[in-house]
Amino acid sequence: MHNVITLFKRELKGYFATPVAYVFIVVFLILAGGLTFKVGSWFDAGQANLQGFFTWHPWLYLFLIPAISMRLWAEERRQGTIELLFTLPVTMGHAVIAKFLAAWCFTGIALGLTFPMWISVNYLGDPDNGVILASYVGSFLMAGGYLAIGSFVSAWTKNQVIAFVLSVWLCFGFILIGTETILDFFAGWTPRAVLEALASFSFLTHFTSITKGVIDFRDLVFFGSLIACFLFMNAIAIELKKAD
Amino acid sequence: MAPMIEIQSLTKRFGSFTAVDGVSFTVDRGEVLGFLGPNGAGKSTTMKMLTGFLHPTSGTAKVCGHDILEAPLAAKKMLGYLPEGAPLYPDMTPRGFLEFVAEVRGFGGGEARRRVDEVIAKVNLASVAQQRIETLSKGFKRRVGLAQAILHDPEVLVLDEPTDGLDPNQKHEVRNLIRAMAREKVIVLSTHILEEVEAVCSRTIIIARGKVVIDCTPAELAARSRYHNAVTVSVGAERVAPVRHGLSMLDGVQSVEDLPERDGTARFVLIPKARRSIAVEVGQKVREARWEVDELRVEHGKLDEVFRELTVTGKH
Ligand SMILES: Nc1ncnc2c1ncn2[C@@H]1O[C@H](COP(=O)(O)OP(=O)(O)O)[C@@H](O)[C@H]1O
Ligand SMILES: [Mg+2]
């Protein structure tokens, strides 16, 4: 536990040691705001809520989260520092969890910095703050899911660009299986149970359900087990690939 | 007393390729072991297994009695390791990085600061301690690598090509650091530079194609050279003919090899029969014949020649 904290601190500080972190946060805020106001025509909707803001998160994360996660292990392997890390008295589990938590915390900071949106809607109208809070929690959980997938992919390669592209595709798959189009495609010839199982793997399904204002236990279990599962595979991937 | 390092038939295969093939040896306190071999011999792979980075395909190793497979964390605590090329986090400063290592090694607050200060002084990093590592010269980076390896004052130091890629002055500095630490630690260092072995090691193991081909002291290694006990003679070029002829006729001399002439001085090497000492015999002959000879030098042997013989032809 002590080492998880030490590694976590080093990682988190690392984000702010370069301008990349600030660039990321600025890009995130501009896109999050821009999409909401322009594309989501927030003002025209005439509603005091953040629905138009949160709707974009799955798509925003699709490109922004792999940009964070791509370097997690790929860079460590490219620089050779992975050898340093694992010859210190550190276990694989500690290292994987610490890196993941630091990245998650960083995205949490970026997400938290969207608070002016929340202040604005409260200033302009009388929104249901419970729904907004739940949506923030849901968005944060979903970011964790994307990150776990990205971290896993990043362990397979030394090339950050490859890690980015593969992560985007894998995450895209996790969005897609919940969309109407895909479900319709399967609907005609697939048993209902399979259809529901497929949809239950989708980020969209769970995220949308949370943004309605209720954090269902099943949604928590989904994101929790997805993260655990990918981090476990992440550790295996490192073990297999670290010699290269 | 149990050996500090005990390597038991370590083997590592990558697919069907065997990089390290049943390597066994022990290292005792007070030894500086030079781990020698051509590129690709399996030095780094052996060290990566010894330091717990790679899992052996078979065999194991013990560091201060801790098995690297059964008690990896205990073994890692006893070890300081400088990986090949001294990888470091480029965004950190040496001080920040060393503080991180100290914390992972379990030192808190004041103790961590004291150790970091101490090690920065020891390897002379003070002038760059607050500069980002990626901006440092190779020599400084190597010293940061050494600093993290010795920060916790480990019993055992494993250094993979510690002077590789450094200029002669930097090499000299790093060797001095290693020599200074040799008194209190067990050191295993890999290299393919032979002068390094003579400069710092008390024992050498040569490996080739994943196997140990010889385990002895640098002096014993040199003694295997056909140049062991050879005598190099320097004499004015105009006077060389009778001297060369006369000395080549001595009983103990097997053959004569000429070296390039330098500033009007001819030089040749008298190779002894069966590496026996011929210095006395040569000296007497020179005195009796009243030759004017500039220099007589007894050779200890050429390591590079022995190295080549052991690693290329596989003969030993
Ligand atoms: N991860 C790996 N996969 C495949 N082959 C490897 C791997 N690591 C090392 N090798 C091979 O194993 C041999 C020994 O490598 P190494 O231990 O690095 O040699 P040295 O350090 O003595 O130069 C080399 O032929 C190298 O190509
Ligand atoms: Mg090597």
Map the helices and strands.
The complex is a heterodimer of chains A (244) and B (316).
Chain A lengths: L1 H16 L1 H21 L2 H4 L5 H4 L2 H13 L1 H9 L1 H5 L6 H21 L2 H10 L4 H26 L5 H17 L3 H8 L4 H9 L2 H9 L5 H25 L3
Helix pairs in contact in A: 1-8, 2-5, 5-10, 5-11, 8-10, 8-15, 10-11, 10-14, 10-15, 14-15
Chain B lengths: L4 E10 L2 E11 L4 E5 L6 H8 L7 E6 L2 E2 L4 H7 E4 L11 H11 L4 H14 L15 H13 L5 E5 L7 H15 L3 E6 L2 H7 L2 E6 L2 E6 L1 H6 L7 E6 L3 H9 L4 E10 L2 E8 L6 H11 L5 E4 L4 H11 L3
Parallel strand pairs in B: 3-8, 3-9, 6-7, 7-8
Antiparallel strand pairs in B: 1-2, 1-4, 4-5, 9-10, 11-13, 11-14, 12-13
Helix pairs in contact in B: 3-4
Describe the structure.
The complex is a heterodimer of chains A (244) and B (316). Chain A is an all-alpha fold and 244 residues long. Chain A has one domain (2-241). Chain A is built from 15 helices and no strands. The longest helix of chain A has 26 residues, at 129-154. The radius of gyration of chain A is 19 Å and the shape is globular. Chain A starts with a helix and ends with a helix. Chain B is α/β, with parallel strands linked by helices and 316 residues long. Chain B has two domains: 5-222, P-loop containing nucleotide triphosphate hydrolases (Rossmann fold, 3-Layer(aba) Sandwich), CATH 3.40.50; 231-299, 2-Layer Sandwich (Alpha-Beta Plaits), CATH 3.30.70.2250. Chain B is 35% helix and 28% strand. In chain B, strand 4 and strand 5 form a beta hairpin. In chain B, helix 3 (94-104) packs across helix 4 (109-122). Chain B is elongated and about 75 Å long. The chains are: A mainly alpha (244), B alpha/beta (316). Chain A binds chain B through residues 2-3, 6-7, 10, 13-14, 17-18, 79-81, 83-84, 86-91, 242-243, and chain B through 14, 48, 51-54, 73, 76-77, 79, 81, 83-85, 87-92, 96, 100-101, 103-106, 148. Residues 14, 17, 19, 37, 39-45 of chain B line the site of adenosine-5'-diphosphate (ADP).
